Amino acid sequence: MRSSARTFAAALALAVFAVPVGPGAVGAQHGTPAGVDRPALIPWPASVTMAPGERFAVTKDTVIEVTPKQPELSRIAGVVADLVSPALEARLAIRDATLAPVPGTIRLEVEPGSGRPDEGYDLSITTDGVRIAAKTPAGVFYGVQTLRQLLPWSIELRGVRPFAVSVPAARITDAPRFGWRGAMLDVARHFFSPAEVKRYIDLLALYKINRLHLHLTDDQGWRIEIAKWPKLTTIGGGTEVKGGPGGFYTKREYADIVAYARDRFMTIVPEIDMPSHCNAALASYPTLNCDGKAPALYTGIEVGFSNFCFDKPITFKFLDDVLKELAAMTPGPWIHVGGDEVKKMTREQYAAFMERAQGLVIKHGKIPIGWDEIIHSTLQPSTVVHYWRPDASMAPPPGTKLVLSPANRFYLDMKYDASTVLGLDWAGKVDVDVPYTWDPAKHLAVEESQILGVEAPIWSETTASIDDVEFLMFPRLPAAAEVAWTAQAARDWNDFRVRLGTQAPRWSALGINVFWSPKIDWRR
């Protein structure tokens, strides 16, 4: 750390902080509508200490400083400027950190040798300035998301008259419980445009989600361009549930989505579902079907009726080509191979198929992930099991790495209650308290160290627009995000429901379509 950073950090540390807060403390505050002793932060940080009555005023003269000079920090500084500049009617200046501490700055620092967790951060706010310090740029970005929630919700509005912007003094130390904090969007049953996926990414980033699982293929559609097999998109991409026009991502569009997510410290995890859920591929290339005939394109919502032909060598040539191209355009380390709801193969065929699928993913330099049925095959040491069952009926082998998405807790496409039009209910009704009151460590009889994290899927049988997706996300996504980020001992439902209720004005300012659950006292 340079001497200027040490001096600035010391100046912040000398500020008089009081009122350390934990689960259960609730109050009210301008801009962040809970108390000075309990800001409305989601997910709740590891440690929060407020300085009652003290605030930092952000003005046109405020400067954002970054150290060391690097493109990722400069992009994050741009995020901060984008947040507050419209309210001030002036673009905040961004510069490399000065040698001497300067009052009135927002300072973003990466300290690789700090000893913090990789995604952890320290956020210090005094009357003189703001400092966010982290081991990695990702940690700085998550600190900025916390700062965003401390700023008045009205900064989210656009086209309004300028107003004063200030943030309460605080000292926050934070790091996540799980490294995998995921969400999934099914773009196969209904297609979502690149712009809609980016909107989804932006909403996920608000709550420190760092994995986006894209379900790219299913019976109803094939959504990713594969150069060696072009009919996958020209034919298989041409419909969706209820017979809509469908669509697909070109390689350039997919790369743009990957880059957009990366700038928000989110890794794309693509899924090619196999050996079932493949009618769109079979309709495009009937040679992949055991009878060599092309089935009709499918627009319904049933499952388990299609599968790749295990006995044909062309099947594995096809999968090798697909996974090779997908791996080349996916910088993240994982490829999901599905493996669920297979009804037309023998157990032996299924096991052999998934073992070959895992091998192909590894061949192309990626880590395989499969839905929990993949346990019926011999798992490669690196394979991750994505556990979706509501119960513990399918025990994973000892030491298996897991991502947990129990359908009765974390499937965000389930109906909230009997009155909800969107969503399904085969796994039960899932209002906002259901994901929040779940402890991932108790779902299976495994060591917590085996659990990489959790993921909140949205399957799109009933969602025809991003507006529909938002309705299923909010308010449940913030609940899932807190489960993923916040230590179990620091979570409390009654406290969370108050903090969640105070998010309402911010969501309205952002134009989010929300299910206003009766379980929450919304402060709209």
CATH top level of the largest domain? Alpha Beta
Number of domains: 2
Mean pLDDT, nearest integer?
A: 94
Categorize the overall geometry. Answer: globular
* CATH third-level topology of the largest domain: TIM Barrel
CATH superfamily of the largest domain: Glycosidases
With strands numbered from the N-terminus, the spatial order across the biggest sheet is 1-2-8-6-7-5-3-4
Helix tally equals 15
Classify the beta-strand content into a percent band: 15-25%
The biggest beta sheet is recorded as:
8 strands, mixed
Distance between the termini: 44 Å
Give a verbal description of the structure.
It is a single chain. By secondary structure, the chain is an alpha/beta fold. The protein has 2 domains: 3-174, 2-Layer Sandwich (Chitobiase, domain 2), CATH 3.30.379; 180-487, Glycosidases (TIM Barrel, Alpha-Beta Barrel), CATH 3.20.20.80. 29% of the residues lie in helices and 20% in strands. The protein has an 8-stranded mixed β-sheet, with helices on both faces. An 8-stranded parallel β-barrel has the order 9-10-13-14-15-16-17-18, surrounded by 6 helices. It has a two-stranded antiparallel sheet with strand order 11-12. Strand 11 and strand 12 form a beta hairpin. Helix 2 (71-88) packs parallel to helix 3 (137-150) and helix 4 (194-205) runs parallel beside helix 6 (251-262). Residues 1-17 and 25-36 have low confidence and may be disordered.
List key phrases describing it.
TIM Barrel, 15 helices, eight-stranded mixed beta sheet, 524 residues, eight-stranded parallel beta barrel, 2 domains, globular, Chitobiase, domain 2, alpha/beta
